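tl;dr need the bound structure. longer version: we got a ligand (flavin-adenine dinucleotide) that a collaborator sent over and nobodys looked at where it sits. i said id run it. heres the input, straight from their email, havent touched it
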Amino acid sequence: MEPDVIVIGAGVAGLTAAAELAERGWKVRILEARDRLGGRICSVKPEGWPTVVELGAEFVHGGNATLRKALESTGTHLAPVCVNMWTCREGRIALAPDYWERIGRVAGKIPRQDHGWSFQQFLWHQRGHISSEERELARAYVGSFNAAPTGEISAHALRPARAGADTEDFKIAGRYEALVRGLRQKFPPRRVNVRRRAVVRSIGWQAGKVAVQAMNAADGTSTVHKARAAVVTLPLGVLKAGHVKFSPELPGKRSLIERAGWGNVTRITIRFRPGFWTSPIMPAVLGARSGRDFGFVNAPDQPIPIWWALSAPAPVLTGWAGGEMSDRLGSGASWAVMADAARSLAGIFRTSRAEVSRWVADWATHDWRRDPFALGAYSFPVAGREDLPQRLAEPVESTLFFAGEALAEDYGTVHGAIESGRRAAREASAALEAAVLNPIFVPIPPMMSLVF
Ligand SMILES: Cc1cc2nc3c(=O)[nH]c(=O)nc-3n(C[C@H](O)[C@H](O)[C@H](O)COP(=O)(O)OP(=O)(O)OC[C@H]3O[C@@H](n4cnc5c(N)ncnc54)[C@H](O)[C@@H]3O)c2cc1C
């Protein structure tokens, strides 16, 4: 079956686009490089662990209707997140009950008018109105969770979307991958063909035709897949690296891709031995109620500064270093991340690394920076170039369509990726319909006829 549309990438953006296109009656082929679906959603349950470990997305941000609807249809439930925030400086741990309000207050001061400021510049302009402590707090928060240098990320893009917007975070009760499975189950029968281990190398295109060359990761053979249109959902890191060639090169998009913001994250989840919450290394306030009060710990002096215990009472902690903090850690090798984690926890717990290590039973981490099909964690909006994602998302010749978190208004999120997939599917479907009603003759240049 020759498909009408080829979708490149089976993360949530690609799966959503495929489901929408198929529902509108188009035949779709998905080409996915990995041997699994979901991309940067990756839930694993290592042997001997009491909980699922999320190596990619873990939180559901805000009361997002798109994601909630998608989750509800899979029967997945959301669990509230313990929002306790403890700050830890020089080993002194204190509850910061107003942490989230303070972050919100700083964000609320970002001017409505876009001055093209980075977050760092905004803080400088507001130095008379925001205390140095709050500036430091906000800088660490924005840099970490947006995986972005605060000197580059757009302040304007960080303005709270609307007054009273629901910014509460939830965790998926179960595994995030249920969403991936749910999207897959939405495919109407026989309309979507999924090819895994299909590593796309090049996308030949002309108006009304695409020829996508993919290598089979299992045996190295190469296949050319033809269709009338393609939806490209490749992560920005892969586009930046130029690992997929467009032929001819995309008019005007290369420089946008190069300038778009792309950040790193280091994240590790550690399973400790039973008794961890009441162990001699655990500060009493954090171990209280078998870790249920742990919530989040923010220790800006530590190489891995942010920790949470959302699976408590399971003796499991997740550590997070985003943006420049992650870049500073250097090697993403599993043992090196564990060494940094032990150093960080020793600082927080005021004990030795050896003591922390004695309590470690196992750990799980994934190096997204060196993952060849991601080459980084997620995107961020660059100061003064807030229109970049929209420009990148513009279709080319009603033939190439683009989706993925980096092109979404809510960049760096699962719901943003879903919305972008939906938008690209609508655009592609409209273009295919128009072509059916209005067929045009497109002469094939001699160079291209080799591929088509
Ligand atoms: C560590 C981490 C934590 C995160 N935490 C959260 C969170 O808590 N909440 C939240 O909302 N978001 C979070 N995110 C972001 C979220 O995971 C992403 O925004 C979202 O999953 C991106 O979906 P996507 O479809 O755009 O891209 P992807 O999921 O990356 O999908 C793109 C697909 O393209 C495939 N591909 C790449 N190269 C090729 C090729 N050459 N040929 C064929 N296929 C290819 C990839 O394998 C992948 O499957 C996190 C991300 C990371 C890395």
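gonna send this back to them w/ a short note. The chain has three domains: 5-40+177-261+375-450, 43-83+263-365, 99-158.
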